[in-house]
Design goal:
mainly beta, DNA-binding, single chain, 3 helices, 3-methyladenine DNA Glycosylase, Chain A
Length: about 200
DNA sequence: CAAGAGATCATCT
DNA sequence: GATGATCTCTTGA
């Protein structure tokens, strides 16, 4: 058995956001900068689901910023937060149903392309964007195009259900009923997640 | 180690 | 004018 490497396509993202968020654990995020490829294993995600999720930016309606979440799946949603950091999301589900998965933490790939390889390089949404030089130029671009500068690979790693921890999302205490819903997912025992 | 504050600006009211 | 899907630094036990 050879494990085949494939780039995740639209049918992967065009599904229930909670499923996509969990299925992204163990997949690789690949960033191309010039001729170089930097990659990491996704170890932590969060789901933001639809117009009723008070933590989802799109719950406040369609605006210039949130419009991308109302579009079709497999497109990057990148925004600046706290004036300093970017957060990386991929749009999910059907058109006009605003939802996305936030990529919260990566374990650096063992290819050792990073000049600083350590536990805290990409253990948070702002930090992984900084490490991979992800900014607003990525916003609204496709994660699925052949020439994407940022895309997902399935390299055959499967994370079983029993190894996935479900927890409440980070930093959304303003979200009323939705603040405690178990929409954060991470690989049990992984050393590269943002918080225990 | 935990808790608190400050950095800093795009976005929306 | 207020706020935030964060992070780092400082303080203190």
């Amino acid at each position: 058995m050879t494990s085949e490497i494939s780039i995740l396509n639209r049918s992967f993202f065009e599904r229930d956001t909670k499923k996509v968020a969990q299925d992204l654990l163990g997949k690789f995020l690949v960033r191309r900068i010039g001729k170089n490829l930097f990659s990491g294993i996704i170890v932590e995600t969060e789901a933001y689901i639809g117009p009723h999720d008070l933590a989802c930016h799109a719950s406040k309606g369609k605006t210039e910023r949130t419009e991308v979440m109302f579009g079709s799946a497999g497109i990057w949603y990148v925004y600046m937060i706290y004036g300093m950091y970017y957060c990386l999301n991929v749009v999910t589900e059907r058109k006009d149903y605003p939802s996305a998965v936030l990529i919260r933490a990566l374990e650096p790939d063992s290819d050792l392309q990073f000049t600083t390889y350590n536990l805290r390089l990409m253990n948070g949404p702002g930090k992984l964007c900084r490490a991979l030089r992800i900014d607003k130029k990525i916003n609204r671009t496709s994660a699925m195009a052949k020439n994407s500068k940022l895309y997902f690979e399935d390299r055959g790693i499967k994370i079983s259900k029993s190894r996935i921890v479900k927890a409440k999302r980070i930093g959304v205490d303003y979200a009323g009923k939705w603040k405690d819903k178990p929409l954060r997912f991470y690989i049990k025992g992984n050393k590269f997640i943002s918080k225990i």
